[in-house]
Write a structure and sequence with these properties.
Layout lengths: L1 E4 L3 E4 L3 E6 L2 E6 L6 E5 L25 E4 L7 E4 L3
């Protein structure tokens, strides 16, 4: 999984994936509360390279990568996976 690290740098993060719920995978381990998970533009993202975070509602074509914050501490965070 890719997360947005310090300085808006894409960082690879190993995670433990749980069940699929409503089209989203549940992440059981590997994310901290408030971390931003890259969910869009993955074909353009390269680890250890800068990413630009889109504002809500901005089209994916106008961004290098989209990010979502991780769930609250102690709760599994849903992560979107495209098929």
């Amino acid at each position: 999984m890719l997360v947005v690290g310090p300085g808006n740098i894409a960082t690879v993060r190993p995670v433990k994936v749980g069940d699929l719920q409503g089209g989203n995978w549940v992440i059981l381990e590997g994310l901290k509360a408030g971390e931003k998970v890259i969910t869009d533009g993955l074909q353009k993202v390269m680890p250890d390279k800068p990413v630009r975070i889109a504002k809500p509602g901005q089209p994916a074509s106008a961004q290098a990568a989209g990010a979502q914050p991780a769930g609250p501490a102690g709760a599994p965070a849903p992560a979107q996976a495209k098929r």
